[in-house]
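Z., the sequence and structure:
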Amino acid sequence: MSPSERTRAVRWQDPSVNVDAAKTTSGLERLRALLRGDAPRPPMAELVDISLVSVEPGLVVFEGKAAEFHYNLGGVAHGGYACTMLDSALGCAVTSLLPAGKSCTTTDLHVRFVRPITVATGALRCEAAVLHLGKTLATAEARITDAAGKLYAHGTTACAILDEK
């Protein structure tokens, strides 16, 4: 291994625990179990290193901090980092309003990158709120800001509402 080489190991738990819980537990209950540590973090959250830190009906907050392993060729966090944080928060905001037996999946995601994210950016906060919850479709919006409230990216989504039978 050369002096400039770095490594990173990622560990995760079986995600079927959360998938199975959707059949009998409301989305809000599942997200609160995740916050308490009673349910495993989703593998994508482990991989990208973002965390759910707050959940209320229709409103969730994720936090993360860009690291070198998020960098693209240009020396900034790859757009996928912000997209993953936004998509996670948006989907969880919708999930927080779903009853037992329902889940959701993203049908589209629109993201606007406002400024680059780097290691020097520091801690980021992604707040997502549901705009509309229907029988088959939900919409939500989210913003990624730094500790001073400076905007880095924002996005909207539509999520299909699914039956978990």
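DSSP finds four helices and six strands in the chain. The longest strand covers residues 151-163.

Let me know what you think.
H.
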